[in-house]
Write a structure and sequence with these properties.
The structure is a single chain. This protein is mainly beta. Helices cover 0% and strands 60% of the residues. It is built from no helices and eleven strands.
Length: 120
């Protein structure tokens, strides 16, 4: 089984920055795309950013130019640098990965989530 653990959330003032990290561990054969999703209270979970194992990225329009997703394939980690944060970025942020485990089983793994609150 593969586990994803997020870190780096917290409370930040509008205009501030946070960096989220997500570490994948367990019986990993390979990880394809990795991404960050978020879910605000009363809202559906939405894709924030995604990155392939070759480094191709895509972002939801509302974060383009402010957020940057990156990954370290050697460490099985993905990051989300969030700048110029706005109150509407407040949500629980979830890490996500398309995983092939050591038994060559493919599945989508999710982290437990980390709270990001943007407020003065």
């Amino acid at each position: 089984q593969v586990q994803l653990v997020e870190s780096g959330g917290g409370l930040v003032q509008p205009g501030g920055s946070l960096r989220l990290s997500c570490a994948a561990s367990g019986s990993i054969f390979s990880i394809n795309a990795m991404g960050w999703y978020r879910q605000a209270p009363g809202e559906q979970r939405e894709l924030v950013a995604r990155i392939t194992n070759s480094g191709r990225t895509n972002y939801v329009a509302s974060v383009k130019g402010r957020f940057t997703i990156s990954r370290d394939n050697a460490k099985n980690m993905v990051y989300l640098q969030m700048n110029s944060l706005k109150p509407e970025d407040t949500a629980v942020y979830y890490c996500n990965a398309d995983v092939v485990d050591s038994s060559r089983k493919f599945y989508i793994s999710w982290g437990q989530g980390t709270q990001v609150t943007v407020s003065s």
